[in-house]
């Protein structure tokens, strides 16, 4: 079964400021986490997202497309990255999610996939 682990981080600024040393430590922790998922043969993909300030949100308002700079939701946290894993069940997905380094400073969400694309074709989740 495919699950996406969504990593939520505090928005930069205020009390949440990373210096170069903290950033490097975080990068090492995520590299190790990704390698552990890979070595366990459960990692399908992973992505670190750019800060939410460079987000562009699209919505349809009737027949009119509205394009908004920034995230749609005003929040103190941002979606910072994702890992897509293929594991037996929710319990196993939770086990992997609890090892995400960012759990120390933000929410980690586990969401089952419904469908996914393989070679341009939608496939149901197992």
UniProtKB/TrEMBL annotation:
Gene3D superfamilies reported for this sequence: Dimeric alpha+beta barrel
Q: Where is the YCII-related domain?
A: 1-112
Please give the InterPro entries that the UniProt record associates with this protein.
Dimeric_a/b-barrel (IPR011008), YCII (IPR005545)
Pfam families listed in its UniProt record? YCII
Q: Which family does it belong to?
A: Belongs to the YciI family.
Protein's recorded name: YciI family protein
The scientific name of the source species is: Microbacterium bovistercoris
């Amino acid at each position: 079964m495919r699950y996406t682990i969504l990593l939520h981080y505090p928005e930069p600024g205020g009390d949440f400021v990373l210096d170069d040393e903290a950033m490097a430590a975080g990068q090492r922790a995520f590299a190790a986490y990704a390698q552990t998922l890979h070595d366990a043969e459960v990692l399908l993909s992973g992505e670190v997202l750019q800060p939410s300030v460079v987000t562009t949100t699209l919505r349809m308002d009737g027949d009119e497309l509205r394009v908004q700079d920034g995230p749609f939701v005003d929040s103190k946290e941002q979606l910072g990255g994702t890992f897509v894993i293929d594991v037996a069940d929710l319990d196993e997905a939770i086990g992997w999610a609890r090892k995400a380094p960012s759990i120390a400073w933000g929410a980690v969400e586990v969401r089952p996939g419904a469908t996914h694309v393989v070679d341009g074709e939608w496939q149901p989740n197992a």
